[in-house]
Write a structure and sequence with these properties.
This protein has one domain: TIM Barrel (Alpha-Beta Barrel). It is built from nine helices and eleven strands. α1 packs parallel to α9, α4 packs across α5 and α8 runs parallel beside α9. The longest helix has 17 residues. It starts with 17 loop residues before the first strand and ends in a 10-residue tail after the last strand. The C terminus is likely disordered.
Length: about 280
Amino acid sequence: MSEFKLVSRHNKNEDSIISIGNDTIGGDDLCLIAGPCAVESDEQLDEIARHISQIGIKFIRGGAYKPRSSPYSFQGLQKEGLQILNKASTKYNLKVVTEVLDTSLIEEVYPYADILQVGSRNMKNYQFLKELGKLDKPVLLKRGMSSTINEWLLAAEYIMLGGNENIILCERGIRTFDTSARNTMDIASIPLVKELSHLPIIADPSQGTGKRSLIKPMSLASLAAGADGLMIEVHNQPENALSDGFQSLYLDQLKGLVKELKLQANLSGKSLNIVSRIPERI
């Protein structure tokens, strides 16, 4: 038996499918999560939310609390950011994925999030993971930037051991000796995790590479490798973004990418879980 017992295929052989309202992550429908790295203003998020809704994407991502390496970098709008997310998601019928930084913020973030994101820096915050295990909302668990797959799955085990079985894994790149890109996108982790665990796994090529030009090829490669979906950063004005604009797609680039993702999904015998809600042209 593996160390990670509950999330292992030894415990459950069939793939887990996570329900979020009427939508699911896992199975034959591939999910897309898109939005800015950080919520910056009401106007910024409204434009992005309108655009991704027109494309048919059902999940919006956006950071209200931002863990930054430098204390002088933009830390997010915090509670105001959550309120902006709620306003835009309600207006455009989108489900919210947003990061919760630690145990003290769970109560504040919980009402605004459909999926609670655990960032790379917190993957090994085990007391925090235990608290998330007590919740009834899905948790998106990002791989630690220097963590092995075994450590990643054990982090998921902490959450599931607490009773929360709604866990989505996210490959977001790892640190290696190579500095050509921000991170090294570990595509091989996707089929390997599928072999070891029943949990769904999505990929984040924006964080995974830190390069706008690499998002498209890494997105297509991730789906080909068996990912259950993608999380992609997009911004209405990447050059003026307060956080990680260099790894965010322009709005028109996202629209073009979705067309190619549909084709890749079909090649994999799956379909992209998007639906057009607003008839006006983008």
